[in-house]
Amino acid sequence: MNAPSSVALVVPAHDEARRLPALIDALSAVIQPGWRLVIVDDGSADGTASVARDQIAVAGIDGEVIELGTNRGKGAALRAGVVATSAEFVVTMDADLATDLDALPALLAALGTHDVVVGSRNAPGASVHDDSRFRRIGARVFNGIVRVSTGLRVSDTQCGFKAFRGPLARRVFAASRADRWGQDVEVLDLASRLGASLSEVPVAWTAVEGSHVRVAPDAVRTMVEIVAYLRRRRSVLRSLASATSGAIGS
Predict the structure, then answer these.
(1) What's the pLDDT tens digit per position in 105-147?
(2) Are residues 181 and 215 in contact, defined by beta-carbon separation less than 8 angstroms?
(3) Does 181 map to a domain?
(4) In the beta sheet, which residues pair with residue 119?
(5) How many Cβ atoms are within 10 Å of 126's Cβ, its own excluded?
(6) CATH number of the domain bearing residue 133
């Protein structure tokens, strides 16, 4: 697959003013004509939106900043950003550059044969640096619970680096209700149950200081969101089916 000409890169950002210059500088080196950067300010208190607009202008790239009035969570920010896109392909990623952008070409290339591509820290060939033993054990337990409870065969649902065919992305993100970390599982499971093909590509990932993730409490909140999703999953899928012909890209 040649480099796609229509890609939206969606980045949720909460109090990320300090990191945005490095992020946008790195993205400006890979963004191609026809690509668009969408940064969603999730109720920041540090001027994230202003810094994002300034840096996008300095970099001279096509981009926009969406502001949420209050801090609602990563899932809510991603939902707002994805549904605002119109690109053929949508890539989601975190603002901290924990995932090496070298994986982006492989992520997009895999969309030539799949509907959703997940960057994975567990796939063969992946590398993880400076990760704590506690985090690794917790991730294995969490992934096991997700597999059993949803049936998803994805080794790393929580990596923020993902790519979707655009119509499918807008469809499943619009139908999602989890506002925080549980949305990763929600959108992947919805896509899978709509008949989408999922694939994983290995990524190089490095733990970044100042992460907003608090492993234990966030894991509990995520499981609560997943349980809530599983309770409504059938009705969500019925609504999606009735709203369209049921085709994946509708």
Answers:
(1) 999 999 999 999 999 999 999 999 876 666 777 777 888 888 8
(2) no
(3) yes
(4) 201
(5) 19
(6) 3.90.550.10
